[in-house]
């Protein structure tokens, strides 16, 4: 992240606001967003806005490309899909101007968002917000196209699912913003997907680590890389509905969810239960381990989890014939590779590698969740009591993940939420 001294520095505190596609899905909604932005500036803040494409624009553009090609080149998809945010940023600036404001729009490259050279799922490696700083210092509202940047090779890139969140928090970090708001049609982060668990509760506060684990485990909350930037710079992220008041209006209380360094939670308690339906599991053993990893690296296919083990009693030589490799792949951006994956597995030899496309992942998230084996054991017992077979188990300091049959994934979420969250009774000091 780069934010070197610059001769033009804004005289007021900076606020970054991000508005999702549902918040700018129509001219009426764009006008409402413009009004909210003007109110924030009127309260004495310099405002940088990050905007997503309108409504279903990205999905519609992608569907059009798929009608022309079953496997469009990723570079051309980036050129195509990044147009959605450029449309939204220009329209929002027009709406702000009609309300007497002075706004200017910038693409990701104009904003100084530098990424690596991967298309469709690029990562931000540096932010050079000099033009943004100049315009904020002149009193303008700056509207930035989210989800996109420019590679060090001067190629247009996109940041993958939730990329506009990443843009917003990365820009907030580079500008030294007071806070970053992520505004959408959802009034915060919940203990589970309310469509799966109707009695899920809104979480008032989350730690950076909990939020990052939720994002990595399939929850449609803040982007994981966005949380990385916030954690590094200590920036508070406010996730709330567009219609809710900003943190400036404390008279109405702080709705939504705030993500910060320390969230008040009893150690070992579960904050949320999330799931990921769209995953693929690759398993390999013997001599296919190294070729499989090399093949994945050559194709640029990244795994979410990777495990290797030696069978009991086997000699502990690296990648020997008794070693087993398991890689969990995110289905997004991988399904187009299915044909190539299956062909590669056949080349490795029968029985050496298999692709499992019937599993989903359910995860319990919480600070100190694995300080002992209690949460793992009780979760296994709950799933076993429901007759839900577990095909894999992985843990971190903040997460327990079970691989289960995709057909029973939602049932597993409800069962574990009832066990960990609904029935939770905290000890009284």
Give a concise summary.
This protein has 429 residues and is α/β, with parallel strands linked by helices. It contains 11 helices and 22 strands.
Notable characteristics:
429 residues; Carbamate kinase; eight-stranded mixed β-sheet; four-stranded mixed β-sheet; 11 helices; globular; disordered N terminus
What does this protein structure show overall?
By secondary structure, the protein is an alpha/beta fold. It folds into 2 domains: 14-264, 3-Layer(aba) Sandwich (Carbamate kinase), CATH 3.40.1160.10; 274-422, VC0802-like (2-Layer Sandwich). The protein has 11 helices and 22 strands. Strands 3-6-2-1-9-13-14-12 form an 8-stranded mixed sheet, with helices on both faces. Strands 5-4-7-8 form a 4-stranded mixed sheet. Helix 2 (57-68) packs antiparallel against helix 3 (74-98) and helix 6 runs antiparallel to helix 7.
């Amino acid at each position: 992240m780069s934010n070197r001294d610059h001769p033009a520095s804004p005289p007021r505190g900076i606020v970054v606001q991000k508005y999702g596609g549902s918040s700018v899905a129509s001219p009426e909604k764009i006008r409402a967003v413009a009004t909210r932005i003007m109110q924030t500036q009127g309260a004495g803040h310099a405002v940088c806005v990050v905007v997503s494409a309108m409504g279903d624009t990205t999905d519609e553009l992608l569907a059009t490309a798929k009608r022309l090609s079953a496997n469009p080149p990723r570079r051309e998809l980036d050129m195509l899909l990044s147009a959605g945010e450029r449309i939204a940023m220009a329209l929002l600036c027009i709406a702000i101007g009609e309300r007497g404001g002075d706004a200017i729009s910038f693409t990701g490259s104009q904003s100084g968002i530098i990424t690596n050279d991967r298309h469709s799922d690029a990562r931000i490696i540096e932010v050079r917000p000099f033009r943004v700083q100049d315009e904020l210092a002149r009193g303008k509202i700056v509207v930035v196209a989210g989800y996109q940047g420019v590679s060090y090779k001067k190629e247009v890139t996109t940041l993958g699912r939730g990329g506009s969140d990443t843009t917003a928090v990365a820009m907030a970090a580079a500008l030294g913003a007071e806070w970053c708001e992520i505004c959408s049609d959802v009034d915060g982060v919940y203990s589970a997907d309310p469509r799966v668990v109707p009695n899920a509760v809104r979480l008032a506060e989350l730690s950076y680590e909990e939020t990052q684990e939720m994002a990595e485990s399939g929850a449609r909350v803040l982007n994981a890389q966005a949380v990385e930037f916030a954690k590094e710079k200590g920036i508070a992220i406010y996730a709330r509905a567009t219609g809710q008041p900003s943190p400036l209006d404390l008279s109405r209380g702080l709705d939504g969810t705030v993500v910060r360094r320390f969230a008040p939670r009893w150690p070992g308690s579960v904050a949320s239960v999330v799931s990921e339906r769209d995953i693929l599991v690759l398993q390999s053993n013997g001599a296919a381990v190294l070729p499989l990893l090399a093949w994945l690296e050559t194709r640029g296919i990244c795994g979410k989890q990777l495990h290797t083990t030696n069978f009991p009693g086997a000699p502990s030589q690296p990648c020997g014939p008794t070693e087993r490799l398991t890689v969990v792949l995110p289905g997004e951006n991988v399904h187009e590779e299915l044909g190539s994956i299956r062909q590669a597995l056949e080349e490795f030899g029968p029985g050496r590698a298999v692709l499992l496309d019937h599993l989903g992942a359910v995860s319990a998230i919480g600070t100190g969740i694995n300080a002992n084996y209690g949460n793992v054991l009780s979760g296994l017992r709950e799933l076993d009591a429901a007759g839900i077979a577990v095909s894999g188990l992985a843990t971190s300091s903040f997460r327990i993940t079970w691989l289960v049959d995709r057909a029973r994934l939602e049932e597993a979420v409800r069962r574990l939420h009832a066990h960990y969250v609904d029935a939770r009774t905290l000890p009284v000091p």
